[in-house]
Amino acid sequence: MSLRIGGELRASRRRGPKRAANGRPFIFHDRSIGMNCRRCGTPLQKPGDYCLTCNTANADAVVAEFDADRARLTMLDEDAVVGETTITTRPEDAERLTEVQLRNFAGRVADEIRRKRPETVYAAGEREPLRETRAQLHHEFYRVPDGGATGSGGASGGNGDAATDGAPDDDGADASPVVQWVLDRRGDRSLAVVETPPREKIGGSHSTLIGDRKGRKAVQTVAEHPHVKKIVPGPIDAGGTGSRTGLRAKATRAGTNGNVRLLLRDGSSVQENRIVTTAMDRETGERVREDLNEALREAELQDV
């Protein structure tokens, strides 16, 4: 095949499919029904893609479900499911992904999410690819609690490195438990997002934290949550029961005003820190508490 460019006849170079670290290509098997931009009607390459013609988002949220060798992305527009994409890879040793494979796999997932330009990303499943994908994105990102992911089973599909697209029924009837968990909460009142840098959220008359580096890591993890406004460290109680598991952190039950407590325990020392959130009542405060505990588990500051 040849192309005429600037009066010259040049041979075009057909680009092959993008390949994973193990040499297998990421191949797109298009089985989508097709979707047009909801504003201008321009055909979209994939369901839920951001329209570059009229600068309109066609999906306001993406749900990512991770297994060790695949990730299924479900695109949502309010309460409707507008599309699905499955990205698969295969570990070289048939057990775990290498560091390079993990980074490349997460990069493909992150690229697919960026195509949609969603407001929010929800994620569940295998922790390593989830954590690496989150590190490569700058979106509002929530970890679906393990209870919400029960029975998800990840994405279905063939073997090899591939990405499969589809546009399922928009009523969510066949949605996985993870997607259904998100849909059930899409109608809830949205919480305000705090733009304050995490370091500036920490204050109060007590500046000492137990656990040294791990204690600071726990507080930093909580401070990074978009619905946390302020963290007020509390006094240290050294009269607790001793523990040999090292520092453990836990967000406790929300109060009627939506605020929660961060309980730090290191040996016989216990510290209760107040967390001011943007939640307006106990119910929405419990949503924030679930997110915080998931983040603390990801940071290996809680027992799984």
How would you portray this structure in words?
This protein is α+β, with helices and mostly antiparallel strands and 304 residues long. It has two domains: 15-186, Nucleotidyltransferase, domain 5 (2-Layer Sandwich), CATH 3.30.420; 198-298, no CATH class. The protein has helices at 99-116, 127-135, 177-186, 212-223, 282-298, and strands at 2-5, 8-11, 27-30, 61-66, 70-77, 80-88, 120-125, 140-143, 162-166, 228-232, 236-237, 248-251, 260-266, 269-277. The strands form three sheets. Strands 3-9-6-5-4-7-8 form a seven-stranded mixed beta sheet, with helices on both faces. Strands 10, 11, 12, 13 and 14 form a five-stranded antiparallel beta sheet that branches. Strand 12 (248-251) and strand 13 (260-266) form a beta hairpin. The N and C termini lie far apart (56 Å). Residues 1-17, 25-32 and 151-160 have low confidence and may be disordered.
Radius of gyration: 22 Å
Approximate shape: globular
**Poorly predicted regions:** 1-17, 25-32, 151-160
Query: Total helix count?
Result: 5
- The average pLDDT score comes to 80
- Helical residue percent band: 10-25%
**Major sheet: order of its strands?**
3-9-6-5-4-7-8
How much of the sequence is in beta strands? 25-35%
Helix- and strand-based class?
Answer: alpha+beta
**Number of distinct beta strands:** 14
State the domain count: 2
